[in-house]
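User: Here's a chain of 218 residues. Predict its fold as tokens.
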Amino acid sequence: MTAPRDPGNAAMRLAILGATGGIGGHVLNWAADAGHPVHVLARHAGAVPRRPGITVTEGDATDPVAVADAVASADAVLSALGPRGAKTPHLLASAATVLTQAMAKTGTARLICVSAAGAFIREDPEASPLVKAILPRIFARPFADVRAMEEVIRASGLDWTLVRPTRLVSTLARGEYRVRPDYPPPGLTKISRADVAAFMIKALLDASYLRESPAVCW
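Assistant: Prediction complete.
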């Protein structure tokens, strides 16, 4: 992944949730390469790369104690959590509640969180009626969880950015993407996890898209 450079070279203390996943892994590697101290929350500490500057708290994203420990001294939090399936249909909303409460207590204001463009397709004026009818039915449960997660974060009072990627693929980063407020730009409807991570990093470094929900795709 080719990530944006930090023009100020100032180290930020970062907390990352979902660091063992596709998007979060790219964010973690960038942070470690750039010399930013990182505190990772992971269900299994052994899944996190052992690198200088990385601290790991083992625990679940819905555990208030573990989450509070991970974000305690962070300047910013980046969450790349994704749904885990039918057994945890409310994971994202529950995790968002725990996370925003922990951040409010510690005074950490900046949150950049992965959402999903598809969860809001019914409101997208550019989406086709057929896609609007089919996609929400196929992904009814995960989309409901994403929407609930966004509601929690929007009501938090934090300096949030809700990144709404389109269909995620695991190909190499292109280093470029299109951005549109709330809904994806028309045309190609996919993007690599690496490029989503790069967008999150750029939003962090630029302090951009505050309290916005940009949709990103190639």
